[in-house]
Automatic annotation (TrEMBL):
PANTHER family: INNER MEMBRANE PROTEIN YPHA-RELATED, OXIDOREDUCTASE CATD-RELATED. The chain crosses the membrane at residues 143-162. It is a multi-pass membrane protein. It holds the Pfam family DoxX. InterPro entries: DoxX, DoxX-like_oxidoreductase. It is found in: Cell membrane. Belongs to the DoxX family. Its main location: membrane. Keywords: Cell membrane, Membrane, Transmembrane, Transmembrane helix. The lineage of its organism: Bacteria, Bacillati, Actinomycetota, Actinomycetes, Kitasatosporales. This is DoxX family protein. It comes from the Bacteria.
Amino acid sequence: MTCYDRRDLGLLLLRLGTGGVLAAHGAQKLFGWFGGHGLEGTGQFMESIGYVPGKLSAMAAGLAETGGGTLLALGLATPAAGAAAAGGMAGAAAVHVPNGFFAQEGGYEHAAILGLTAAGLAVTGPGRLSLDHALGHVLDRGWMVPAALGVTAAATTVVVGARSRRLRRKTQGEQETLFEE
């Protein structure tokens, strides 16, 4: 009989908690569950905060959260799951940065902790109480961690950077309009 240690139980709890929260938030975006607005409503919101095209952005965020969260909870393809969730949370944090750190002020605290936990799980691995372990870690190889995090970091940099440039141009255009009046 295999005896699981505290590390395995701790990783299971982290995966279930973080993965569950991420999956629920993604389901709000994709399906409108749990009081969410689904793809249409979330797409409109994404457009309003500079993620264009909005519906595609909503789908990408929803898939990163739902897919990454579900896979993290199961402990399956942990490097890719953690990286995808971390990338989604980096995009969310970028929206909240102007409001400061604390969530009570609309800050990036919640997105940051979910993203950091997901990235930490990608690096640490899922532990023995996971599907990755049961399947012999075929989707959880050492080389997959830097590959998944690197690809996600590059894609997130491009997406968040494009949003920032778009918002900067919009702000400059509004300022020019004010000076003309």
